[in-house]
Design brief:
CATH superfamily of one domain: Thiolase/Chalcone synthase
Number of strands: 18
Strand content: 15-25%
Radius of gyration: 21 Å
Order of helices and strands: EEHEHEHEEEEEHEEHHEEHEHEHEHHHEE
CATH class of one domain: Alpha Beta
Number of helices: 12
Length: about 425
């Protein structure tokens, strides 16, 4: 095997919170709070001195879930609360469901810039979402010209989650795009429900085999101190959305789309959570004695027809894999976001993927999809499962509202070695 490129970019630490069910344990935290927990854990795991983190790249899709509209300051506040240098700048990125992956892509781009243009060599990537706190918006027509701090007239109240599930320009909705894509690919409702049942079954098995239960699964997750609904202190160490279900239960749920492929049971769960990663040039990681095992080998971002936005991972994956110098068959483990079962199954059929290698610990249908956090959540789970299985190449991908896809390929530079992440 050729010597690793010292100028490559590596993920030197990664971590994710457990994912909280809507209005559950994590709903008491803002997205910023959750991102700070994840950022602190990623820093701890890789052991990077905080003064050597040059920049923060953050992602939070649903703004204004923190008190006082503080989500405007999301990445900057996370960096300051994590004790990074005051002069370390912060940037917010927003690519909807691909935002977490975009933090890695942006960090990689910053690091690979020539020294004369950008001296960044170590980046804290953080992404968080508290969908339980998404606000209701009063759509007053405009501010008053006579008194700026007053509004002219009253407007309708709008649920920020429900409104965002529509794509008005394309005259469609997210669930309809999954329904349309699945139908084009010959997906059936029974296949969607079978897949949803399998996602929950895999997630339950992973929970049982988690390192919190003495196993070695889900090592990307860390335990979180929180309070339950009655105000009692709890140690949260599991994804709350995962539940017991059956094919019979899922098949009895009503279809919500024209082709009846999408139901409440085979769509991703609304959830709260955060994830983080420390990304460095390989040279900087080695200089600081940090783990340098997980290389970002390639990425791809691509637009698709908004009416079948769920197809986005197909061209994004193809680009990412090609840029990594690989073929699809070279990828030994996949994390592909389950926005909807119909959407995932369309991707699986088009790329001819082996489901035994995809979302092996369950996906968003079972564990939840906190929009911005999902990309980094998948990366944390992917890296640790690659180590567990001895897999050299893995890929994480997501479809993106509006008709896009994003994908990141990770390469294990020490496939026979022990992980340096703690």
């Amino acid at each position: 095997m050729p010597a690793p490129n010292p100028h490559s970019v590596v993920i030197t630490g990664s971590a994710r919170t457990p994912l909280g069910v809507k209005c559950g344990t994590l709903s008491r935290f803002s997205a910023e709070d959750l991102a700070v927990f994840a950022g602190e854990e990623a820093i701890r795991r890789c052991g990077i001195p905080r003064e050597h983190v040059d920049s923060v790249v953050g992602a939070n899709v649903y703004q204004f879930t923190a008190p006082g509209a503080q989500d405007l300051y999301f990445p900057r506040n996370v960096g300051l609360r994590c004790g990074l240098r005051e002069d370390a700048p912060a940037l917010m990125v927003q690519r909807i469901c691909g935002s977490g992956l975009q933090t890695l892509i942006t960090a990689m781009q910053q690091i690979l810039m020539p020294e004369a243009l950008d001296g960044t060599r170590a980046v804290l990537c953080v992404a968080g979402e508290t969908m339980s706190r998404c606000p209701r918006i009063d759509r007053a027509p405009r501010r008053s010209g006579a008194a700026f701090w007053e509004f002219a007239g009253e407007g309708p109240l709008e649920d920020s989650i429900l409104a965002s599930l529509n794509h008005d320009l394309a005259r469609t909705a997210m669930m309809r795009t999954a329904d349309e894509y699945g139908a084009r690919m010959g997906v059936t409702r029974r296949e969607c429900d079978q897949f949803a049942e399998e996602s929950h079954r895999r997630a339950r098995a992973a929970r049982q085999a988690s390192w919190f239960n003495g196993g070695d699964a889900l090592r990307g997750m860390f335990e979180l101190a929180a309070t339950d609904g009655e105000g009692r202190g709890v140690r949260m160490a599991r994804d709350e959305c995962v539940r017991e279900t059956s094919l019979a239960v899922l098949e009895a749920l009503p279809g919500l789309t024209p082709n009846k492929l999408v139901s409440p049971g085979n769509a991703s769960e609304i959830a709260d959570g955060a994830a983080a990663a420390v990304v460095c040039s390989r040279q900087r990681a080695e200089e600081l004695g940090l783990p340098a095992r997980w290389e970002i080998a390639g990425y791809g971002v691509c637009g698709v027809d908004p009416r079948v936005m769920g197809r986005g991972p197909v061209p994004a994956i193809q680009r990412a894999v090609a840029r990594a110098g690989l073929a699809l068959a070279d990828v030994g483990l996949w994390e592909i976001n389950e926005a909807f079962a119909a959407q995932y199954l369309g991707v699986e059929k088009e790329l001819k993927l082996d489901r035994r290698l995809v979302n092996v610990n369950g996906g968003a249908v079972a564990i939840g999809h906190p929009l911005a956090a999902t990309g980094l959540r998948m990366i944390a789970d992917l890296i640790h499962e690659m180590e567990r299985r001895g897999v050299k190449h893995g890929c994480a991908s997501a479809c993106i509202g509006g008709g896009q896809g994003a994908a990141v390929v990770v390469r294990d530079l020490e496939p026979n070695g022990r992980s340096g992440q703690r």
